[in-house]
Amino acid sequence: MAEVKPFHALRYDLSKAGNIEDLTCPPYDIISEEQREAYLRQNPYNVIRLELPRGEDPYREAGSLLKDWLSQGILKRDMEPGFYIYEEEFWDAVDHGEKKKLKGLVALVRVEDFSTGVVLPHEETLSKAKTDRLNLMKATNCNFSQIYSLYQDEAHITRNRLENLSKTCPPRYEFSDGLVTHRLWVVNDTAAIEAIREDFSGRKLYIADGHHRYETAINYRNWCREEGRWNPGSEYVMMMLCDMADEGLVVFPTHRLVRGLPDFQPQTLLKACEEEFFLTVQGGLEETKVMLDTLYREEKHAFGFYDGSAWTVLTLKDPQVMARVLPEKSQASRLLDVSILHSLILEKFLGIDKENMANQKNLTYTRSMEEAKASVEQGESCCCFLLNPTRVSEIGEVAANGEKMPQKSTYFYPKLITGLAMNALDDC
Predict the structure, then answer these.
(1) Burial of 67 (C-beta count, 10 Å sphere; 0-12/13-18/19+)
(2) Whole-angstrom Cα distance, residue 412 to residue 419?
(3) Would you say residue 94 has pLDDT above 60?
(4) How far is CA 4 from CA 8, 189, 237, 409, 412, in A?
């Protein structure tokens, strides 16, 4: 099962680099070029220069920059191996503005092939992102950001350990980025480290966010082996590990935008949907949100549909229809809202097949209901479908069955910040 171990993290020397809040950034794949430039104006040592390099040979430049920062003492290795406790405190806009905290363990995890059943994915990935991340790892031999994974622990043994350990001393870092308060503790106590390692010896891990980075870690490990490179560090990857039952876990939905269909007729589509769905006309976006929220709490499968002139909520009549539509899938996969939408509407009536979806030819995505609405009204999209969030329990069930959800099925919030602790793979 999962093997976790402490490590000598690379961390900023704040006396040389500046304030930690000016040195960190969100994950690379949600940062625009304008945001990247803004981070660098704030502090030229921001980790974005390593995680999202630019230039004629960006990967080589990232490798050179990492060496420069190490030689200058901008980044330093911790003297003792340790685990790192990371906490995010935030307001959950999805759950009626409730204040929440999510606390997890940052550690190294042995890289396992998916076939071993130790580390389990839940979502499909794109090749382009994996190529980019592999080139960066080859150039830097470093993990700059953590893969976000979940574990099952009914007794919450590890979560209680982390809670107790974080109470013994103030956090090493504590700051707010305006939306989220971030805290990091360093754990060097050998007894605590061994207890936590033992906790994970019988567990599987479920990737929540960072599928591209984990598949890249597998590819990098294999590349090192094939090239005959002595690199024990490539056998491990940095992860943030959270209890799957933590009340602080929040998943946002990712809405679908349909575009580029020249013969699209919304009324024809809705008429066809009446075969499997109840159709309820709504007065607007806010009314649609309320109804979707109500149906979500009733555990019904429903979508909001907007064609630029009218809002409609589509509610699945009989979930058993999915056994006929997706007989090769498990019950957990069949009854995902994204599976229902993709199979019964997008593929069946709009002809948007899996390859089309993967290439984003006629289907794109957004996390914002307002952005989806505006895209339709501005003529960029033919229509949009608003979804409810995927439940964390559903993610675990699908992964445990060895299956994957369609791309863009989940969006865990808040994202883990990059730059608090990094993992140089030559350290192992």
Answers:
(1) exposed
(2) 19
(3) no
(4) 14, 15, 10, 28, 23
Domains of the chain (ranges, CATH numbers): 4-250+413-427 (3.90.1530.10), 254-388 (3.30.1760)
Cα–Cα distances in angstroms (integers) from residue 14 to residues 78, 340, 348, in the given order = 13, 50, 56
Q: What is the pTM of this model?
A: 0.90
Cα 110 to Cα 33: distance, rounded to the nearest angstrom: 33
**CA pseudo-torsion sign 338, 342, 346, 349:** negative
Q: Are 126 and 360 in contact (CB under 8 A)?
A: no
DSSP 94: T
CA angle 120, 423, 85 (to 5 degrees): 75
pLDDT in tens, 333-366: 999 999 999 999 999 999 998 888 777 889 999 9
What percentage of the chain carries pLDDT values higher than 90?
A: 86
CA 256 to chain centre: 18
Which residues contact residue 320 at a Cβ distance below 8 angstroms, ignoring those fewer than 6 apart? none
Q: Dihedral of the CA atoms 283, 91, 178, 371 (nearest 10)?
A: -20
Locate 46 and state its tokens.
């921001």
CA distances from 130 to 195, 316, 421 (A): 34, 36, 22
Nearest CA to 82 out of 6, 27, 2 is that of 6
Question: Would you state the pLDDT for residue 96?
Answer: 54
Which token pair is 211? 């599928």
Q: Which pair of tokens denotes residue 179?
A: 């939306």
- Distance between CA atoms of residues 148 and 205, nearest Å: 10
Question: DSSP of 361-417, one letter per residue?
Answer: SSEEEES-HHHHHHHHHTTS-SEEEE-PPPPHHHHHHHHHTT--BPTT--EEESPPP
Element of type H or E holding 275? none
